[in-house]
Amino acid sequence: MAKAGSSGTGKSGTGRDKVGKDKVGKDKAGKAGAKAAKPTRAMVVVTQPAAQSFNSPPKVLIAGAGVGGLTLALMLHARGVSCRLYEQASAIREVGAGINALPHAIKELALLGLLPALDAVGVRTSELFYMNRTGQVVWREPRGIAAGFDVPQFSIHRGRLQKVLHHAVIERMGPGAIVTGRKLTGFVQDEGGVTAWFTDSIDGSGSETVRGEVLVGADGIHSVIRSHYHPDQGLPRWNGVQMWRGCADFPAFMDGRSMIIAGGMSGKLVLYPIGEGQTPQTRLTNWVVNVRISDTPHPPGKESWSRRGRLDEVLPHAARFAIPGFDVLGLIRSTDAFFEYPMCDRDPLSRWTHGRVTLLGDAAHPMYPVGSNGAGQAILDARCFAECWVKAEHPWQALLAYEADRLPKTAEIVALNRKGGPERVIDEVEKLAPAGFTDVDRVMGYDERKAIVRGYAGKAGFTVQQLTKM
Ligand SMILES: Cc1cc2nc3c(=O)[nH]c(=O)nc-3n(C[C@H](O)[C@H](O)[C@H](O)COP(=O)(O)OP(=O)(O)OC[C@H]3O[C@@H](n4cnc5c(N)ncnc54)[C@H](O)[C@@H]3O)c2cc1C
Hints:
Layout: H1 15-28, E1 60-63, H2 67-78, E2 83-87, E3 98-101, H3 103-111, H4 115-121, E4 123-124, E5 127-131, E6 137-142, E7 154-157, H5 158-173, E8 178-180, E9 182-189, E10 194-200, E11 208-212, E12 214-217, H6 224-229, E13 237-251, E14 258-262, E15 267-276, E16 282-292, E17 307-308, H7 311-318, H8 328-333, E18 339-345, E19 357-359, H9 374-391, H10 395-418, H11 424-432, H12 440-443, H13 446-460, H14 464-468
Parallel strand pairs: 1-2, 1-12, 2-8, 5-14, 12-19
Antiparallel strand pairs: 3-7, 4-7, 5-6, 9-10, 10-11, 13-16, 13-18, 14-15, 15-16, 17-18
Helix pairs in contact: 2-5, 2-9, 3-9, 9-10
Bound molecules: flavin-adenine dinucleotide (FAD).
């Protein structure tokens, strides 16, 4: 962030006063210093404004075209707000493996008119099973429509979800809406806006200077904007759990739309279909093996998504799980390429917004992937940001209102995920009955198990009651 340091916008702890109040607040927005307005959750009417012109500067500059950045672009466009995305990757590719998008996030994507596109590439999850390592059921519940929501839960390849969003951005906003192969390398802000510098991500050449009213860092767990304002944050925090993830064409299990999570935080297996298979009897089946392998809090320098996993490393761990009727080792062996990375998050920040610059998605609140919430929370951030933007009288006020709504909620989920999220129910039962059980109700009562699982859903905002009253 070479140029960012010369901005005069202040480092962590000083930026808001200097940029927001002294420079911006007084003369441009009488209400800028007022308490941040609480955004409402009024329904979006999906409008399709004409593809925006890229001759005039966009209002919102977005660094990062992941799930968060792309959804933000669609949300802003639906409200007639111009924006442009800059993505360091040279193309939007189908990387990663499966994720689950819960009804709170799908509701937002449905309002953007994306349900048919999601149906074309994902699987409507029907039921969730929490099990111990030998496949005994600790908890089971219907999901999505079957659970009474008016929108489904989707099990989907992360890359396909990203593609759906990407296509929608291009179709609605035009090809100029996303500039790929461009990496944010610096920014300055002043009374009237933000100037950002993007360079070619491969050879660092061809710096492009762009002006916008605000800059949103949707640039993931390694966000350069976040590290600019928090230079001492250090490496992501690792809980010592190594994750291996992959997907392969494999015979369908249960009803072909069910999801299994077996084992607690120290050793977990996750299985779910994320797409049609090559034959009617098979599904593209996602698997994850999580194992605690270390006590050190710092990841071993490889927290990226790109390190290829090795069969000889993962198979001994996977062999500890026995799911009746499911050939776990066969699924892993039939996977062409799979990836490994440490399970990381970061401590919640006290603020995301510094004048005209803020954070969104994993850049703002990276969390452990338990409870199926990371991408979902990025989608909820995007909706909130767009609502705050159209309601506020000044960009500075919009960014603060967005932060005031989303920061506390996501910080709570980060904390809950550290304790295992809803999957903690498996840990608790395994602790009480490490050798298994004949009757789970005798190990831990139904109400106690329900309180763990549903308590998390309430905090993360995806109970049926929360979603149907919106
Ligand atoms: C194992 C695992 C399982 C998961 N399972 C789930 C799940 O079931 N459900 C769920 O909801 N979530 C899940 N998640 C989390 C989810 O994938 C993330 O929370 C989500 O993808 C975050 O989206 P994002 O857009 O904020 O960040 P990212 O997807 O990381 O996107 C950031 C983008 O910014 C770009 N970028 C970075 N730096 C720059 C720069 N300087 N300039 C320009 N561009 C830049 C990157 O190339 C990238 O495209 C899981 C995560 C993991 C690791």
